[in-house]
Amino acid sequence: MLVCTAFTRLIAHLLTYSLNSGNEAADADSIISSLCYAYHRSCISNDCIYIPLVCVEKSKFYLRRDVELLLDHVDIAINEDLLSLYDINWKGLQSSNISCHFTLVDHNVLASKAYNCINYSNLDELIVEILDHHEGTQPSRNYYLVNH
Predict the structure, then answer these.
(1) Whole-prediction pTM value?
(2) How far lies 145's CA from each of 10, 22, 135, in Å?
(3) Which of 20, 24, 67, 89 is spaced 20 to 30 Å from 113 by Cα?
(4) How many helices (DSSP H) and strands (DSSP E) are in the chain?
(5) Distance (Å, rounded) from C-alpha 54 to C-alpha 98?
(6) Which residues of 23-32 are buried (b: 16+ CB within 10 A; e: fewer)?
């Protein structure tokens, strides 16, 4: 176990994680977009590890029955296979050498509950990319307006 822990610490600072966050409603288009974008980016780039992030507590996933049915069709179990905003030890992550940034998918501003949960002093600086179908409020970011 000591070797695994030491190895994990050794490589942790070499990795960058891109957390692809859907909106706080955690509706079907938001969750599926987050999953698909993380998959797409991981297929075309190996510069970091792309992780879809769902902005709802796992105890409330049962309310997303439409998403559950869609994901079940492709053998993705919501409670086991998806990472929630609330699953991450944000204090531990912030104090570690692990580099992470955010891509917002299907929204252009992090919700207040995300800010409260994450509690990073420089959270806005960690948002490096935004994909949304609404006009952006943060024009300095890599903003991609997706039209229907």
Answers:
(1) 0.78
(2) 39, 15, 7
(3) 67
(4) 7, 6
(5) 20
(6) bbebbbebbb
* Buried-state track 37-46, b at ≥16 Cβ within 10 A, e below 16: bbeebeeeee
Copy the structure tokens of residue 80.
Answer: 């086991």
Q: Angle CA(86)–CA(89)–CA(35) in degrees, nearest 5?
A: 50
Centroid of chain to Cα 75: 20
**3-class DSSP state of 115:** helix
Q: What pLDDT digit, counting tens, does each position of 101-139 carry?
A: 888 888 877 766 666 667 666 677 778 888 887 666 655
Do 17 and 99 touch, CB atoms closer than 8 A?
A: yes
Residues 6 or more apart from 105 whose CB is under 8 A from it? Answer: 20, 21, 22, 23, 30, 33, 34, 37, 131, 132
Domains contained in the chain, CATH given: 14-145 (3.90.1640.10)
Q: Per 3-state DSSP, what percentage of the chain is helix, strand, and coil (rounded to 5)?
A: 45, 20, 35
